Amino acid sequence: QPGCFLCDAFQSEADREHLIIKRSAACAIIMNRYPYNNGHLMVASYRHVDSVEGLRPEEQADMMALAATACARLREVVHAQGFNLGINQGVPAGAGLKDHIHLHIVPRWEGDTNFMPVLADVKVIPQPLMELWEQLQRAFR
Fold first, then answer.
1. C-alpha–C-alpha distance, residues 49 and 115, integer Å
2. Which of 65, 79, 80, 97 has the smallest number of Cβ neighbours within 10 A?
3. Domains parsed from the chain with CATH numbers
4. Mean pLDDT over residues 97-104, rounded?
């Protein structure tokens, strides 16, 4: 779909530029350019679909398989101790990109909440995005 950053990324071969970590049969893992935490990833179908119920069974299966792989690799690379996984389907649910369904994977650590987002609307990300992209690329090989 024109104007969809996920569709643009998936149609391109410039994985580094678009922060794509892994491509699979029906879905791909892409880094969130505006992460909540270090290592915040998204799994999205190649097909432009706006809801979970619109996904084909093979897309649903691929999305969950990639999510499991992503969690395993994030444990290795950023030493995540837990994860928040979620889909914001529709604007009322908080979807920033309402027309292309995607699954968020947010790594978590014991005691990882901090005051910066509350006080200054600022997030502290302890690692440059492209440095982490390089590490995750190696881990997914």
1. 36
2. 79
3. 5-139 (3.30.428.10)
4. 92
